[in-house]
Amino acid sequence: MRSFLFIFFFFFFASISNTSVVADESLDTPCIIFDRFHMYVINNIPAEIKLHAYSKDDDLGYHILPYYAFYDWSFCFGPKTLFSGQLWWGSKYIALNLVDNHVHKMCDRQMFGVRHCYWLVRPEGFYIGVKNNTWPDASWVFQTPWP
Fold first, then answer.
1. Strands 115-122, 35-43: parallel, antiparallel or unpaired by DSSP?
2. From residue 42, how far is each of 12, 32, 107, 119 by CA, in Å?
3. How far is the first Cα of the chain from the last one, in angstroms, to the nearest whole number?
4. pTM above 0.85, yes or no
């Protein structure tokens, strides 16, 4: 019984302290306790945008996204998961949380399997959706404008 408890607590604390990230690839890394999320940032501006996505533990780098291109990554969502983003469009700049508890609540609509969540970047601002529906669609929820 003690060995079972030790193994349980080992995996529990290991999964809390370390957010597993797979960028631009597959969903190979298993999530032991928490939900697997797959995030997308989609450029819906008829110009290039620049994205820098990062967390405390993982810098996913800088990415140039042409019109209709996207950047994606997957991770195990734990209670302290936070991914931030910096985005540039011409002379406009914004820093925002791409993944936090608010985004988790908006995208956690699926009972089983991988939860997919989409950020849509548009000239008027940023939208979140649980499906990558064609714009315009009522499923996109406006979050914030460009400053």
1. parallel
2. 33, 29, 16, 6
3. 56
4. no
Mean pLDDT over 10-38 rounds to: 54
Q: Which CATH class is domain 2-145?
A: mainly beta
CB atoms within 10 A of CB 15: 17
Q: Which residues pair with 43 in a beta bridge?
A: 121
Question: How far is it, in rounded angstroms, from Cα 141 to Cα 117?
Answer: 12
Alpha carbons 73 and 38: distance in angstroms, whole number = 6
Which range is most confident: 5-14, 19-28, 129-138? 129-138
pLDDT-derived band at 66 (thresholds 50, 70, 90) equals very high
- Tell me the C-alpha distance between 81 and 75, whole Å: 9
Per-residue 3-state assignment (H helix, E strand, C coil) for the chain: CHHHHHHHHHHHHHHHHCCCEEECCCCCCCCCCCEEEEEEEEECCCCCEEEEEEECCCEEEEEEECCCCEEEEEEEECCCCCEEEEEEECCEEEEEEEECHHHHHHHCCCCCCCEEEEEEEECCEEEEECCCCCCCCCCCEEEEECC
What's the rounded mean pLDDT across residues 14-42?
Answer: 61
